[in-house]
Amino acid sequence: MPYTLTVSPDFTPDHLSGWYIFNTWLQKTTGEAIHLEIFNSFLAQHEAIQDDEIDLIFANPFDAAMLVREKGFLPLVMAQGRSDEAVIAVSSDSPIIDVTELLPGCRVAVTEDPDVRLMGMIMLEPADLATDNVQTHVCDSYVLVAKQLLRGDADVGIFLAEAYDGLSNIIKKQLKMLVRSQIDVIHHALMVGPRLVDRRDELRNTLLAMNNDEKGQDILKNLRFDAWNSVEDADMEFMIDLMDTLNT
Amino acid sequence: MIYDMKPEQVIGDYKEVRLDLFGGISRVCLYTEIETPYPDGKLIVSTTDNSGVITHVNKSFVEMSGYTEDELLNAPHSILRHPDMPPAAFKDLWDTISAGKKWQGYVKNLRKDGGYYWVKATVIPNVRNGVVVGYTSVRRKPSRSKVEACIKLYPTLF
Ligand SMILES: Cc1cc2nc3c(=O)[nH]c(=O)nc-3n(C[C@H](O)[C@H](O)[C@H](O)COP(=O)(O)O)c2cc1C
């Protein structure tokens, strides 16, 4: 039976071709049949994890605790220099210039991306805003979050910083960034499940060496980073504890 | 280690008080009315061993406290203890985390230069293989209204 690789559904479709190429490389390098399964929602992905259908996952930090504590996953690597950060932005027409001017009842546009949503809501707390006193508009993508702001359908938006940076200049010009997080220690991680855990060291070494040759470098470029960095068990436990403190 | 605060490290007019800290430590604190605002978008992170001695700090911790990383590591976490914080708050913190639970509260912290900064802190036990090996605290920017409420409440708790 082939193994199954999946990536957190918070990636935009244009990232996905990079993951298909990566998976082809991974199969060739490991000599294993690995199927890349893309879920279009966190819910669908969680169901597959619960049913033990996943062997490798580029996981959202929000899911790390569940993967480690309940499903026996262990960390392999993270994308170098890629911490998950959130941006709070409003329309450039908005009179708001500081988060603390936002009022309870305001409309907050978000995506389903759980860690970004969590970090974003923490950055709204100084205005006494919380999930129970704002109107949350869940959008399918960060471009749609931006559009809600431009159309005046939402008062404030929560973005993955990388997605915000990737918006077109035309859109960005019509937005105003209020805060950008600098948390540094929360990041996605590639994790290995129980069926493949025996090969953890081999997998990790293969991934860490990926940027040593041109072919590997090209594949990484398609994933939009330069190298993998090792994530040790202690690093993962630290991040899980951090997420736990934020998730309150 | 924790040392008495010295006038030459303090910026601005200060008051002086001697605090009795856990473990028989007594410290002269010099404190001013100068507030350093919490930086937007940052988290201040530290971990301690089981007795509250600092084992890790992040960059934001160093920046906000005014101490160097070397001064912070191996010092008791009460190095940040501000005289305006009621002992009951820290008793509640220790009672809660010793019971294996998560504690959350608003804390006024004392900087090396005698100034202060308010945080919303969450402290959790670090459980490894079923054993508590230390504690992690993550602070975020507090809302002004919550801080105002604490400024009224805390003096009544002494
Ligand atoms: C992880 C952790 C973080 C803490 N952070 C602070 C802090 O930021 N400021 C503070 O005054 N006390 C903090 N404390 C509580 C101190 O350990 C100490 O109880 C407090 O400063 C009062 O001093 P005392 O217990 O010696 O009387 C923290 C404790 C733990 C376990």
**Order of H and E elements of chain A:** EHEHEHEEEHEHEHHEEHHEH
List unreliable stretches of 5+ residues of chain A: none
Q: Figure out the total of helices of chain A.
A: 10
Which term fits the overall shape of chain A?
globular
CATH superfamily of the largest domain in chain A: Periplasmic binding protein-like II
CATH class of chain B: Alpha Beta
How would you describe this protein?
The complex is a heterodimer of chains A (248) and B (158). Chain A is an alpha/beta fold. Chain A folds into 2 domains: 3-82 and 185-246, Periplasmic binding protein-like II (D-Maltodextrin-Binding Protein, domain 2, 3-Layer(aba) Sandwich); 86-180, Periplasmic binding protein-like II (D-Maltodextrin-Binding Protein, domain 2). Chain A has helices spanning 13-30, 42-50, 61-69, 114-124, 142-150, 161-165, 169-173, 200-208, 214-223, 233-246; strands spanning 3-7, 34-36, 56-59, 74-79, 86-91, 107-111, 135-139, 156-160, 175-180, 189-192, 228-230. In chain A, strand 6 (107-111), helix 4 (114-124) and strand 7 (135-139) form a beta-alpha-beta unit. Chain A starts with a strand and ends with a helix. Chain B has 158 residues and is α+β, with helices and mostly antiparallel strands. Chain B has one domain: PAS domain (Beta-Lactamase, 2-Layer Sandwich), CATH 3.30.450.20. Chain B is built from 4 helices and 7 strands. Chain B has helices at 59-65, 69-72, 87-98, 144-153, and strands at residues 15-21, 25-31, 44-48, 54-57, 103-110, 116-128, 131-140. Chain B has a 5-stranded antiparallel β-sheet. In chain B, strands 1-2 form a two-stranded antiparallel ribbon. The mean pLDDT of chain B is 96. At the A-B interface, helix 10 of A face strand 6, strand 7 and helix 4 of B. The structure holds flavin mononucleotide. Flavin mononucleotide binds next to strand 3, helix 3, strand 5 and strand 7 of chain B.
